[in-house]
Amino acid sequence: MATINLVDSVPTQVTRPRRPAWLKARAPMGENYEDVYALMRDLDLHTVCEEARCPNIGECWNHRTATFLLLGDTCTRGCRYCAIGKGKPQPVDEQEPQRIADAVAHLQLKHVVLTSVNRDDQPDGGAHIFAESIQLIRERLPECRVEVLIPDFDGNWDALQIVMDAQPDVLNHNIETVPRLFRRFRPRASFEQSLELLRRARELQPSIITKSGLMVGAGETDAEVLEVLDALRASDVDVVTIGQYLSPTGDHWPIDRYVTPETFAWYKTEALGRGFKHVESGPLVRSSYHAHEHVPA
To answer: Is residue 3 part of a domain?
Structure first.
């Protein structure tokens, strides 16, 4: 099992645990997969499915669903768990929302998830691109529900207001990990600021479904996972997702343990007992996995 040095700023991995059988996903292939792949290339769009190396890409794309990654493929932050490229991004593409709407219409989606890289170089963090994408999707496909998985906008609540004014159906912001690991796992972010964002979203649009997610197996304890669940419920979050952390490369934050399916089932029981309306908890769960099932019709 990996050893985490909780004193130094970077965790130290002595041995890498062997990936268990329950974490194996099918290789991506199939007619629908190829169609979605070609569509993303034709429209010059990015998906978090590809950029974050999601293990469920084959399943989701074969169901003709994808999580669109707005604002380019380069993030301005250096979170230690994430596979998305980091550095100085290209200028914001103001035509991207139109292409997003084209893709959603082509796929005839009933539920779409929009997320983005962090764009701390922008005054509004790119919030207007979220808003315009929501509006154009609604014009093209009014029956499509829109879920946004937003960054923290560096605490810019005016940017949050821009997104909320567009009235998404679901507001998702991932807490990712426990307070003890948070600042090393997510530099420049803060646990309390993420909770505040979720609380403010509820205040701005009381009827909205709020959602958050965390990854386990990064060095936290089960007791700390329950504390995060308590904090999310105290912030009136409706839906929570819990999945296994998978280190993208040897240079990223190391895996401390592989959490068993039985423990994930226990997390779900504990979360439902705390009053969450829906819980997805399993080794391959990601925040957008089966997203259309997280909200009532």
So the answer is: no
